[in-house]
């Protein structure tokens, strides 16, 4: 964060004598640590107390662990094997204990001599290795270990203090080796330049940065750790919020054309046609958007809403207002299926208002064009012509809209659907098509907790649609434990038949397509421990569709939909399903966003444990879109006690997307959430937890806004500028520039 010369030193050179090139290489490749500063900001994950031991009773399987324990007994066995046929094979079994449980260590062959001499009963040490099961007992095979003796100066020095830091480590570099490397560089912490303004630090009673670094790596008491963490959390929250505040400030300086709708124009004509009234939420959010569009600097607004809360309607009205004011509006969708769907539903909602320049077009009307990569040359030429002449007021498309050839007459508003599927560069390229920066509306159907929105989209004003339109039906969700209760799965297929017999339709969702290209046996990808445990690849669309058509759903019309089909075929399948010609659609997550078939009332998600919480919530939002109630069945083979099952139970228990996104975030690390929003750059959050530290983030945002308002260039705060430069390395700098 604070790259000053001493802290910028690469780990490879200055510390050859200490780290050695091999250690420096492992740190760079496996932990992303390149400089002395990086290493100082590699904080301990937790601390062990010398007097107390870790809980051997609750060690996680298949994970790399570090434990501090005492040797209870050690026995050397000889045995015969292929390599040592005359009974010369040696195996050392060491039992260690920590009061809560016991753990077996095992060493073989020539590797037994050193531990046999050193690991005597009563010896205390740190052990690191991968937990496995042998004869139904937990064991560590050939663990690395470090004796904890108080005799030699070096050891006393290295493990000074009663608290032993346990660092995030890898199989190639144990926690205590990282600890030793840190002891070497810790003196340079004195040179760390403090990014926090002095008044802020003193006002909040925070320790200085050098002191915080010292206390986090070599705490003498638990209070030391608390002090250090409180201070380092503030750094992370504040520096990030200053970056976002500067971006908001810069955006506010940009010019934009104010877009005010005409009193009796296209928007009024559209509203008069609507067969229903807008919800209070839609009216409130529309007002916020129209107020922004009427100003002379670009709107940057995030519109988040529950699945089915009517975001598209709000976005369409904003687009119509822009056309009324003489501009054009572009809507960017993540997939062709979605772009085609949006285009279809917009044209349907607008009726003759979408027939500008055609016979039968209404007085206030415009042209609505579709632009995707797979369009025929003639249709594409016509669409491009309509855009450059201004004939088309609204264009809906995929990233094909961003290509150089695409030119607008006067681009006034860009609406981006499902923001996290678009790179910042793509949004930026589209915004660059306006003569002046266009207004920007970002829509997301994955509700984001307020704090995440403040941390990730802190430069966007946020509008939330949290009520469902009238006439929407509730969705009942249930977990179907296929392994424990196979008859539940049989009942699930009966329920699908019942829905179809009642005149409705159903989706069946699978994690995989099932053609050769994504066959895991051939892809050579490393499997996760859960996959290994299951010994089977995730269920595939093509296989499941085949089994259902021949088995439990025999006699119903079953079709498949997945991402590798030709766009025309995909569109044809969707049209047949939308028209009610197909009873059951077996699909991958291509149906996750925006697919709107009100007659579809049931969804069965196979291997539901393979999907994330927000993805399940998105998928579920595809049913119950009409007046009949929806049903979502989450099929899993995971055992009841597993984290995956708990996740599914949480999804089944609530329809509140904001609540689910909190659960999701508590189960995952912030890095995932921030990573997808921060263009994949390494997350800057090491001690800040977005959900727990809500107050810190909110306070840091206020402080940051005040600092930037008073001194946008931060001329009086060199330490803060340095910290910003480190946070916004080139990739991020571009990312923030582009917004």
In short:
With 739 residues, the protein is α/β, with parallel strands linked by helices. The protein contains 28 helices and 21 strands.
Question: How would you sum up this structure, described in words?
Answer:
The chain starts with a helix and ends with a helix. It is built from 28 helices and 21 strands. By secondary structure, the protein is α/β, with parallel strands linked by helices. Helices cover 40% and strands 18% of the residues. The model is unreliable at 1-5, 152-161, 519-534, 671-683 and 730-739 (pLDDT under 50). The longest helix is centred in the first third of the chain and has 32 residues, at 222-253. The chain is globular and about 95 Å long. The strands form four sheets. It has a seven-stranded parallel sheet, with helices on both faces. Strands 16-21-20-17-19-18 form a six-stranded parallel sheet, sandwiched between helices. It has a five-stranded mixed beta barrel with strand order 2-3-4-6-5.
């Amino acid at each position: 964060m604070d790259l000053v010369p001493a802290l910028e030193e690469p780990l490879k050179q200055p510390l050859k004598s200490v780290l050695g090139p091999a250690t420096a290489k492992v740190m760079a490749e496996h932990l992303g640590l390149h400089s002395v500063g990086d290493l100082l900001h590699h904080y301990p994950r937790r601390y062990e107390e010398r007097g107390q031991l870790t809980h051997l009773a609750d060690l996680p399987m298949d994970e790399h662990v570090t434990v501090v324990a005492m040797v209870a007994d050690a026995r050397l066995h000889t045995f015969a094997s292929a390599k040592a046929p005359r009974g010369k094979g040696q195996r050392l079994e060491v039992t260690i204990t920590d009061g809560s449980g016991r753990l077996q260590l095992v060493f073989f062959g020539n590797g037994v001599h050193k531990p046999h001499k050193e690991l005597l009963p009563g010896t205390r040490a740190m052990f690191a290795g991968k937990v496995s099961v042998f004869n139904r007992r937990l064991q560590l095979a050939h663990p690395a270990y470090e004796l904890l003796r108080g005799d030699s100066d070096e050891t006393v020095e290295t493990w000074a203090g009663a608290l032993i830091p346990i660092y995030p480590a890898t199989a190639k570099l144990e926690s205590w080796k990282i600890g030793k490397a840190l002891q070497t560089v810790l003196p340079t912490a004195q040179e760390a330049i403090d990014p926090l303004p002095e008044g802020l630090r003193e006002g909040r009673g925070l320790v200085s940065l050098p002191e915080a670094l010292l206390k986090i790596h070599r705490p003498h008491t638990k209070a030391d750790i608390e002090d250090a963490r409180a201070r380092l959390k503030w750094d992370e929250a504040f520096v990030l919020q200053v970056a976002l505040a500067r971006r908001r400030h810069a955006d506010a300086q940009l010019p934009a054309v104010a877009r005010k709708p005409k009193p009796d124009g296209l928007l009024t004509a559209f509203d008069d046609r609507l067969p229903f009234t807008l919800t209070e939420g839609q009216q409130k959010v529309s007002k916020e958007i129209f107020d922004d569009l009427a100003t002379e600097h670009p709107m940057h607004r995030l519109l988040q809403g529950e699945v089915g809360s009517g975001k598209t309607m709000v976005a369409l009205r904003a687009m119509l207002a822009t056309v009324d004011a003489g501009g054009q509006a572009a809507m960017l969708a993540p997939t062709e299926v979605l772009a085609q769907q949006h285009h279809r539903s917009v044209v349907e909602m607008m009726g003759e208002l979408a027939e500008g320049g055609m016979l039968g077009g209404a007085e206030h009307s415009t042209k609505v064009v579709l632009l995707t990569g797979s369009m025929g040359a003639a249709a594409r030429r016509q669409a491009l012509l309509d855009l450059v002449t201004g004939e088309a007021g609204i264009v809906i498309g995929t990233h094909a809209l961003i290509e150089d050839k695409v030119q607008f007459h006067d681009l006034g508003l860009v609406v981006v659907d499902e923001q996290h599927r678009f790179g910042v560069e793509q949004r930026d390229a589209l915004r660059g098509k306006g003569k002046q920066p266009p207004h920007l509306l970002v829509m997301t159907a994955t509700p984001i907790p307020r704090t995440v929105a403040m941390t990730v989209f802190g430069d966007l004003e946020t509008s939330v649609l949290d009520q469902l339109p009238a006439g929407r039906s509730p969705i009942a969700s249930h977990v179907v434990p296929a392994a424990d209760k196979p008859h539940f799965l049989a009942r699930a297929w009966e329920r699908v038949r019942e829905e179809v017999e009642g005149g409705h339709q159903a989706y069946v969702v699978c994690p995989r397509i099932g053609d050769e290209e994504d066959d895991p046996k051939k892809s050579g990808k490393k499997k996760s421990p859960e996959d290994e445990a299951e010994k089977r690849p995730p269920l595939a669309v093509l296989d499941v569709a085949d089994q259902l058509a021949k088995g439990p759903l025999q006699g119903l019309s079953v079709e498949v939909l997945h991402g590798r089909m030709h766009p025309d075929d995909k569109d044809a399948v969707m049209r047949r399903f939308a028209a009610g010609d197909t009873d059951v659609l077996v699909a991958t997550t291509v149906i996750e966003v925006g697919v709107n078939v009100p007659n579809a009332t049931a969804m069965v998600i196979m291997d539901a444990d393979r999907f994330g919480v927000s993805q399940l919530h998105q998928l579920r939002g595809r049913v119950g879109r009409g007046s009949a109630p929806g049903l979502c069945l989450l099929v899993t083979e995971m055992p009841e006690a597993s984290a995956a099952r708990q996740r599914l139970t949480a999804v089944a228990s609530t329809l509140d997307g904001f609540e689910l996104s909190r659960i999701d975030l508590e189960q995952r690390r912030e890095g995932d959430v921030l990573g997808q929003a921060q263009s994949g750059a390494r997350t800057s959050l090491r001690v800040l937890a977005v959900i727990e530290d809500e107050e810190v983030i909110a306070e840091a945002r206020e402080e940051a806004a005040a600092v930037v308002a008073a001194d946008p260039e931060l001329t009086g705060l060199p330490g803060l500028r340095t910290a910003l430069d480190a946070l916004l390395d080139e990739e991020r700098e571009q990312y923030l520039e582009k917004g």
